[in-house]
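Before going further, learn to read the protein records used in this course. The integers have meaning only within a learned vocabulary of local backbone shapes. To see the layout at work, look at the sequence and tokens printed below.
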Amino acid sequence: MRHPLDEKGMDAAPGRIRCLVAPNPSAMTGPGTNTFLLGSGEVVVIDPGPDDPAHLRAIVGALDPGEQIAAILVTHPHLDHSALAPALARATAAGVFGFGAPGSGWDARMRALAALDPGGGEGRDTGFRPDRRLKGGEVLRLGEVTLQVLATPGHMAEHLAFGWGRTLFVGDLVMAWAPSLVSLPDGDMGDYLASLARVAAGPWRRLLPAHGAPITAPRTRIAEVIAHRQAREAQILAALRAGPATLAAIVARVYPDIAPGLCEAARRSALAHLVDLAGRGLVAAAPRPAPDAVFRRRDA
């Protein structure tokens, strides 16, 4: 399915952008994963999407006569973004570029959390292995497309964004229609907020997320997302005023009307906030910051 990407009057990117929406709509992916095709002639693909033969045919079929795919870029190794990369690479002989396998960006703290709670990485593409590993600060020159690589950890430690002119392809860092999930150990709330602030301070006139519509007022939308996270943090701290509590009790207080299908996402998000608060010295966790801990305010 083609995406309603309207470039009339927009010069935020220096070349042609095509967008196809993968047929994987859900509460977490919105309409589906946006697969972007950049440039003409030698085309760059960003986020090939889920392992779906119909979407593979749609990507190849979107090429004009004589065009070829020069490179396949992955913002992060979640299955809805990267799983089609091997099949697309086989079909086109293009190389796959990304940060690395899931967990390759973890620090010692996240590795310890992963050992305690491996269930927080739903949707990891455990088989993802890029042909070329990328890092923030690199400049990629791929045919007519020159991209700036930004390290944007938070939703996932291995998350990257790609800047083309004044357009930034932001993966799952920020979306127009919903907050992004931050789920330990893949995600880190402190890193997430820092990445948002870094993007807000950049020159970007337009953000193209991997789910949903373009964001044409980046600073405004990022400010809304940061405010939402700060409000959730305040709710969690308020919930602990009554005394020490488990994660389940905190979630019940902070999300009293959550839809059943979003309960696990709410639990993961609350845990990410609590671990971040513990790291900043605002919350104590016994015996350690983890899903089975009892949390209390340090000022209590």
